[in-house]
Amino acid sequence: MAESQFYARVAARAGVPETTARALTEATLTTLAERISGGEATDLSAHVAHELRPLLVRARAEDAQPFGYDEFLRRIAERAGATPADAERGARAVLQALHRVVGPAEFDRAVAQLPREIGELAQPAPRV
């Protein structure tokens, strides 16, 4: 999926303008790369648009930083200049779009490294 299509999908899912979706995507992918192992982040990067890859690839294959849901969203909000609510909606939209691009097997390996609450962001909302 091209970079512009990814941003458009995030904008539609999060209900934000595309410029906001871009900031939320960059913040979410950067924060995700900090939270999972460097090797897993590199594996994910192989599936995204070329322009998004640097957000997931770290200089060294470092260990994951151990932080939870609240810190995950705090970092995204700070990096994107977003409200906590927009950060949560944006993270959900980015992770769901990433899941679709990467595919279930690879994505599930990455999500297995996350706390349950962060992993749940990638799950579609139940239909009422």
Q: Can you describe this structure in just a few lines?
A:
With 128 residues, the chain is mainly α. It has 8 helices and no strands.
Can you walk me through this structure?
This is DUF2267 domain-containing protein. The chain has 128 residues and is mainly α. 67% of the residues lie in helices and 0% in strands. The protein has helices at 3-14, 18-35, 38-45, 53-56, 69-80, 84-102, 104-111, 116-120. Helix 2 crosses helix 6. The longest helix is centred in the C-terminal third of the chain and has 19 residues, at 84-102. The radius of gyration is 13 Å and the shape is globular. The model has no long low-confidence stretch (mean pLDDT 89).
Task: Sum up the structure in keywords.
128 residues; mainly alpha; Globin-like; 8 helices; globular
